[in-house]
């Protein structure tokens, strides 16, 4: 066990880890049944723990439940890319969005965003947000939003603990 964890989803086994933690912080990887066996062996060789949470891809709901049960986490901060951010939001696993916008514009087809993924299905409405606060530090703007749901704010792992997600807008 560690005091703090950084948990990374890598179901395809792409990351070649050079930092796996220190005396206070420990890496733990989320994988799926389809993750290459050689990658799992590499994690074992490095002394890195992993959870198998899904068949062909990492399943966020199963991952959060396992993190809570096995690591004792009651709050998770997702500081990730647009694909995972969108997946967590669409599955109703996000309570608060904390977004830092930096000056600069990036454009073009295929440019990553903080919420990537397939288009919403027909008849599905976007998640509504309520502004909590705005802070300006120099040229950076930080906005925090509470995610609305039809039955009140989303709760992480359906246990009542809030889940926060942070995203950064790409900048030049």
TrEMBL record:
Residues 149-172 are annotated as: Disordered. The keyword Cytoplasm does not apply. Pathway: Cofactor biosynthesis; riboflavin biosynthesis. Keywords: NADP, Oxidoreductase. Pfam families: RibD_C. GO terms for biological process: riboflavin biosynthetic process. Residues 7-135 form the Bacterial bifunctional deaminase-reductase C-terminal domain. GO terms for molecular function: 5-amino-6-(5-phosphoribosylamino)uracil reductase activity. InterPro entries: DHFR-like_dom_sf (IPR024072), RibDG_C (IPR002734), Riboflavin_Biosynth_HTPR (IPR050765). The keyword Oxidoreductase applies. It comes from the Bacteria. This is Bacterial bifunctional deaminase-reductase C-terminal domain-containing protein. It comes from Terrabacter aerolatus.
